[in-house]
Write a structure and sequence with these properties.
This protein is α+β, with helices and mostly antiparallel strands and about 270 residues long. The chain folds into two domains: about 130 residues, no CATH class; about 70 residues, no CATH class. The protein contains ten helices and eight strands. A two-stranded antiparallel sheet has the order 1-2. β1 and β2 form a beta hairpin. α6 packs parallel to α8 and α8 packs parallel to α10. About 35% of the residues are buried.
Length: about 270
């Protein structure tokens, strides 16, 4: 964290060059035309990094810097829209994973107040967009930080509690993970219960998808047992997965949400719920 602050919110390597994705400085995020897409996520990330640094070190200096980024450079406003997308399944999936980690860390170490309410509102919008993916990490990260919170805007007061089958979907995903983590191919695009995502929901803003993507008639993505992936930044709207069973995937995609569910009480002991 101190490295970023010392180098004007940039990650600089030993050659003195800023790394490819290593800029978080206001001049770039708010004014450079090449960084408008990353503005929300990078602002959110920096606010979260500073909150965590203050919590770990007990040094209030990090929160003072956080406030400066909010008051002078509107990083909180930037973070209200963490990702440029066009609805379900669109945009970069890696951004979603990074954002949910940052939301969780930021809100965990931010006291009640207007700033926390704004970030909760942003988190709610992100969670609603991701809910059909049945991702237990996303569900647990969001639900654990809401705690019955209500927020107020000029038109009224609203609950941000998660709704629908989020807990059931989380449990189904965890229970459905194949014990065999080898990368066997999986084909689903021929199924009659699949509906294609419209072209407007493409991953890239400027071009349509080149591979088949879709969801079940329920509007939710394929169950985890019909897919194969190694990280939560995968595209769960993909229908067909290649592989020949010669690569062993990580178990972290299961362990992270499982222990998070245990920690926050959504999973009870070995029996689950």
């Amino acid at each position: 964290m101190d490295h970023l602050i010392l180098h004007d919110f940039q990650l600089v390597d030993h050659t003195g060059t800023v790394t490819r994705w290593g800029t978080y400085r206001p001049e770039d995020l708010n004014h450079h035309p090449d960084w408008w897409v990353e503005r929300g996520l990078k602002s959110l990330s920096m606010l979260a990094y500073l909150a965590v640094a203050s919590h770990i070190t007990g040094d209030a200096r990090y929160l003072e810097i956080q406030q400066r980024l909010i008051q002078d450079h509107a990083y909180d406003t930037n973070a209200m829209i963490y990702k440029i997308h066009r609805g379900l399944g669109s945009g970069n999936q890696s951004d979603d994973e990074m954002a949910f980690m940052c939301y969780y860390s930021l809100l965990k170490y931010t006291p009640a107040g207007s700033f926390r309410d704004r970030m909760l509102t942003s988190f709610y919008a992100a969670w609603r967009n991701e809910a059909p993916e049945g991702n237990p990490f996303f569900h647990f990260a969001y639900a654990s930080q809401v705690h019955g919170t209500e927020v107020t805007d000029p038109w009224g007061r609203y609950s941000l509690m998660p709704s629908g089958d989020w807990l059931k979907d989380s449990m189904n995903t965890l229970k459905g993970f194949p014990l065999d983590r080898l990368n066997w191919a999986s084909q689903n695009s021929h199924r009659l219960d699949i509906m294609a995502l419209p072209p407007n929901n493409s991953i890239d803003l400027l071009q349509e998808d080149t591979r088949l993507r879709g969801h079940l008639k329920s509007g939710k993505v394929l169950p985890v047992e019909n897919t194969h992936f190694n990280h939560w930044n995968t595209d769960p709207w993909s229908l067909d997965y290649g592989g020949s069973g010669n690569t062993l995937a990580s178990g972290t995609v299961f362990l992270l949400p499982y222990y998070m569910g245990l920690y926050h009480g959504y999973i009870r002991g070995e029996s689950g719920r």
